[in-house]
């Protein structure tokens, strides 16, 4: 053990090779230089993301906050990814094409931003017009009163339906 620490001058070629392998194995999983720096930054970002929104609120950069102003006060909501506005103010961005304002109805005007879909007039869930139902229930036919008041003497009772004589069953070959 002590000969490993003294250096390669008193070691044979095989022992030197073994010492080199041992040193490589000792630092096999450790990061050095730029790789270590990037790994530490990644761990810090993951810690911020998992700690919760309470700690992240004060560390949010200004570029992640919405740029809209409401009554001369800047919006404090977080902006959508790859944009400069939050969901409530995304329609103020003239370059975006993913959201439109809901038109609402004559009785209830609405200006909520909704994602553009395949429909020509995107609406929020409150103003969504449903398509007519595809299933139409069958109409119940009215039974004429003549059939309802049929005489009961036309029907046979259970006793009348029973055979009065037992007939032998014949089987033919």
Automatic annotation (TrEMBL):
GO terms for cellular component: mitochondrion; NSL complex; nucleus. GO terms for biological process: chromatin organization. Keywords: Chromatin regulator, Isopeptide bond, Mitochondrion, Nucleus, Phosphoprotein, Ubl conjugation. Non-catalytic component of the NSL histone acetyltransferase complex, a multiprotein complex that mediates histone H4 acetylation at 'Lys-5'- and 'Lys-8' (H4K5ac and H4K8ac) at transcription start sites and promotes transcription initiation. Required for NSL complex stability and for transcription of intraciliary transport genes in both ciliated and non-ciliated cells by regulating histone H4 acetylation at 'Lys-5'- and 'Lys-12' (H4K5ac and H4K12ac). This is necessary for cilium assembly in ciliated cells and for organization of the microtubule cytoskeleton in non-ciliated cells. InterPro entries: NSL2, Znf_KANL2-like. This is KAT8 regulatory NSL complex subunit 2. Transmembrane segments: none annotated. It comes from the Eukaryota. Component of the NSL complex at least composed of KAT8/MOF, KANSL1, KANSL2, KANSL3, MCRS1, PHF20, OGT1/OGT, WDR5 and HCFC1. Its main location: mitochondrion. It is found in: Mitochondrion; Nucleus. Residues 72-127 form the KANL2-like probable zinc-finger domain.
């Amino acid at each position: 053990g002590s000969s490993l620490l003294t250096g390669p001058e008193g070691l044979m070629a095989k022992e030197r090779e073994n010492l080199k392998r041992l040193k490589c194995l000792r630092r096999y999983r450790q990061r050095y230089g730029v790789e270590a720096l990037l790994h530490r930054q990644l761990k810090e970002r993951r810690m911020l993301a998992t700690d919760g929104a309470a700690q992240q609120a004060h560390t949010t950069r200004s570029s992640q906050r919405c740029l809209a102003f409401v009554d001369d006060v800047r919006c404090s909501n977080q902006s959508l990814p790859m944009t400069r506005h939050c969901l409530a103010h995304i329609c103020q961005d003239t370059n975006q094409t993913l959201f439109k304002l809901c038109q609402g109805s004559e009785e209830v005007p609405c200006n909520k931003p909704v994602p553009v879909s395949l429909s020509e007039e995107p609406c929020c869930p409150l103003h969504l017009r449903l398509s007519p139902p595809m299933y139409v229930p069958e109409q119940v036919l009215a039974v004429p009163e003549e059939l309802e008041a049929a005489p009961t003497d036309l029907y046979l009772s259970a006793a009348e339906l029973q055979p009065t004589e037992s007939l032998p069953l014949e089987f033919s070959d």
